[in-house]
Design brief:
Radius of gyration: 18 Å
Number of helices: 4
């Protein structure tokens, strides 16, 4: 397998701060919960792209911030499409599918917790 990610090293906290900024959340409205009783991994993550550079001569041209910003733009477009009034039946079907999967089971009016 060949890695194609960003080779920029970033901590989980800095990644969360980047995501919060990209989606224009107010940082003071976000609470970080660090589970100190859990194992601690490496201080930062990044993609090792040495093999793909050697094999294919490929190097990432997009920064993590630019890539995440583009992804958020795409997601916003998908959400806007879901709320197009001419697609009500498709919207209901898609939202139901998004609420239930092997990994996600959203219960209305419950507290949602997310982890990175």
């Amino acid at each position: 397998p060949l890695n194609t990610g960003s080779d920029e090293g970033i901590s989980v906290d800095k990644l969360a701060e980047l995501a919060i900024g990209i989606v224009s959340l107010t940082p003071t409205h976000v609470t970080y919960v660090h589970q100190k009783d859990m194992p601690v991994g490496v201080a930062a993550r990044n993609s090792n792209n040495n093999l793909i550079a050697c094999e294919l001569g490929w190097r990432s041209k997009t920064s993590l911030k630019v890539g995440m910003t583009a992804t958020v733009g795409w997601i916003k477009g998908e959400i806007q499409t879901l709320f197009d009034p001419t697609l009500a039946a498709k919207r209901r079907e898609t939202l139901k599918a998004l609420m239930r999967s092997r990994k996600v089971d959203i219960v209305p009016e419950s507290t949602q917790k997310y982890g990175i």
